[in-house]
Amino acid sequence: MSDTKARGETILSVRNLKTYFDTEYSLVKAVDDISFDLARGEALGIVGESGSGKSVTNLSLLRLVPTPPGKIAGGQILFRGRDLLQGGEEDMRLVRGGAISMIFQDPMTSLNPLLRISFQIAEALRLHHGLGKQEAKAKAVELLKAIGIPDAERRADDYPHQFSGGMRQRVMIAMAISCSPEILIADEPTTALDVTIQAQILELVKGLSDENTMSVIMITHDLGVVAGLCDSVCVMYAGRIVERAGCDELFRDPKHPYTRGLLDSIPRIDSAGRHRLYSIPGAPPNLAGLPAGCAFRPRCDRAMPICEREYPPEVALAGEDGAPRSVCCWLHAAGHSARSEA
Ligand SMILES: Nc1ncnc2c1ncn2[C@@H]1O[C@H](COP(=O)(O)OP(=O)(O)OP(=O)(O)O)[C@@H](O)[C@H]1O
Ligand SMILES: [Mg+2]
User: Fold this and answer.
1) CB of 46 closer than 6 A to ligand 1?
2) Does the C-beta of 160 come closer than 6 Å to ligand 1?
């Protein structure tokens, strides 16, 4: 796990963000009133099961949610104090791939199959840094070397299909970091890769965040990735953040029953003997028809009557390592416990 860093100034502040999809049959609240802050140089993990709203959260940050059916229904995204939701599309284009860049979940859909790799990397440099053609190409080759592409001068002129999956993913990273972004958003950047390449890519991102004081938002359902890279973590469930904490603290002392379930379902090297891994009962909920009260209640072994009636408040807890700590669970709300409810 990463050493605890001193928290820098906040550069991104997401306030009460709501992103909804108006589908034919229902309104899907994919992101429902979430807030979080990102400090300079911080690596923040966003974890949660499939469909919990991780990708939609991050697409919303760059205003890339497909509209319709999606729309940002409320909130603020303050980047260096300026609300990105208020600016024009032209402003946003300069932010995307410049100050904030993103590695998408599927690299093949983000690389143009008809253009040479070097051209695709150079394009961002020409747009955001005004580099000339030759200069941009030389920088592209330099970046390919930096991300460990062997024989970079020659391979730079290859097309995406001539690269392996791991190499394409690294090219995506090269493109994302080419303009020295202040924030790198990485959406499951290593899911499709084998573990050795996965480790190399994480090392690369970690190195960049340590060197450049670049901030990282790492979206993943893999808690191993979070443990290896992140300073702090937000756990999402059904479109909301249900727990947030410093990374070490979350692993040491999870508070939300869902987070506990997630942690119990990963193998641990220090567990004595052989035992079956836990799996959270039930399935992630359908966001189009969430029950009243806490969305995790139907799967929770510690649910109380109030969990069925009302969504729990966000309870602030004392965080040990400087990162904000809170949990949305009635078990931790003052005056509520299994006994007082019984
Ligand atoms: N274009 C769309 N139209 C309608 N619903 C959508 C659209 N995109 C996302 N959603 C819905 O938003 C919810 C959140 O999706 P999201 O892609 O953010 O999940 P995720 O947490 O990234 O999952 P995964 O781990 O599988 O990538 C899902 O219920 C999904 O069905
Ligand atoms: Mg996703």
Assistant:
1) no
2) no
Residue 294 in domain: yes
Residue at 4 is within a domain: no
Atom of ligand 1 nearest to the CA of 288: 29
CB 52 less than 6 A from any atom of ligand 1: yes
Q: 284 lies in which domain range?
A: 10-99+181-269+277-341
Whether 306 and 210 map to the same domain: the answer is: yes
Q: What is the CATH number of the domain that holds 322?
A: 3.40.50.300
How many A from CA of 153 to the centre of ligand 2? 34
Distances (CA, A) of 119 to 93, 144, 155, 163, 279: 19, 12, 12, 15, 46
Ordered mean pLDDT values, 10 residues apiece, the chain (342 residues):
61 97 91 96 93 95 94 96 92 88 77 92 85 92 87 94 86 85 89 74 78 87 88 96 96 96 79 67 88 94 95 92 89 73 50
Give the closest residue (by CA) to ligand 1 atom 31: 51
Q: What is the dihedral of CA 142, 147, 151, 156, to 10 degrees?
A: -60
Helix (H, G, I), strand (E, B) or coil at 235: strand
> Residue written as tokens 């019984």?
342
